[in-house]
Specification:
The protein has a single domain, classed as START domain (Alpha-D-Glucose-1,6-Bisphosphate, Chain A, domain 4, 2-Layer Sandwich). Helices cover about 35% and strands about 40% of the residues. The protein has 6 helices and 7 strands, in the order E-H-H-E-E-E-E-E-E-H-H-H-H. The radius of gyration is 27 Å and the shape is elongated.
Length: about 190
C-alpha cells in the first residue's frame, strides 16, 4: 500500500516540527491511540485501536525516527502487531517546507499489512488508511490552531504599531511635567 499527500499548516515549520516530535501531541492526533511513549531518543512504543471493515484490533508497535533533518523532516519506520487481526509495517517520509502561509507538510507512506486485515481487500484497507491519515491531519491542524491561534485584529494592529522612540537630550513634553507636578502635589498633600 502506498499513500502520498500534503497539507498546508498555518504554523511555522519549527512549530510543526516540535509538535510532530511531541509524544503527547501524537497521542492526541493519532486516531484510536492510547499510548505513545518514548523509549529512547527517536524511538517510541505505541498502542492503537483500529477498525477496518468488520475487523477490530488493538495494535502494539514501535516507531523509529531516522534520517533526521530538523526542522525539515525525517523518515519514520513503524512495525505493529495486532494479534489474530494481523500486522502492519512500513515507512513514511515526512517533509516540512516553509511558505508564506506557514508550512506545508508532505508525506509518502509505503506499508504492508498481513493477516485478517489483508484478507479484507486492498481497496478497503487503502480507504481505511486514507481515512486515518486524513483524521490525523485534521486533528493535528486543530491542535496547532489551539496551541498557536492566529492573531486577532487588535493584537495584529498592536504588533504592527511603531514603538515610541526616545532620543537622549530630547525635550520632555509639557504634559509629563504637569502630570509629575500633580503627583508630587498629591503626595505632599496626603503626607500632611
Amino acid at each position: 500500500m502506498d499513500l502520498q499527500a500534503s497539507r498546508q499548516l498555518a504554523v511555522t515549520r519549527q512549530q510543526a516540527w516540535d509538535a510532530l516530535n511531541d509524544p503527547e501531541v501524537l497521542k492526541l492526533c493519532i486516531p484510536g491511540c492510547d499510548k505513545v511513549q518514548a523509549t529512547e531518543p527517536g524511538r517510541y512504543v505505541v498502542g492503537v485501536a483500529v477498525k477496518v471493515g468488520p475487523v477490530s484490533a488493538r495494535f502494539n508497535g514501535k516507531i523509529t525516527l531516522g534520517d533526521m533533518d530538523p526542522p525539515s523532516g525525517y523518515t519514520l519506520t513503524f512495525d505493529g502487531q495486532g494479534g489474530a487481526a494481523g500486522f502492519g509495517k512500513g515507512t513514511a517520509k515526512v517533509t516540512l517546507a516553509p511558505n508564506d502561509a506557514g508550512c506545508e507538510l508532505s508525506y509518502t507512506v509505503h506499508a504492508q499489512v498481513g493477516g485478517k486485515i489483508a484478507q479484507l481487500g486492498q481497496r478497503l484497507v487503502d480507504g481505511a488508511a486514507r481515512s486515518m491519515a486524513e483524521d490525523f491531519f485534521k486533528r493535528f491542524d486543530n491542535e496547532m490552531q489551539r496551541r498557536f491561534p492566529p492573531p486577532t485584529a487588535a493584537t495584529a494592529a498592536a504588533a504592527a504599531a511603531p514603538l515610541p522612540v526616545t532620543v537622549p537630550g530630547a525635550r520632555v513634553p509639557q504634559w509629563v511635567w504637569v502630570a509629575g507636578a500633580a503627583v508630587l502635589l498629591l503626595v505632599w498633600w496626603l503626607s500632611r
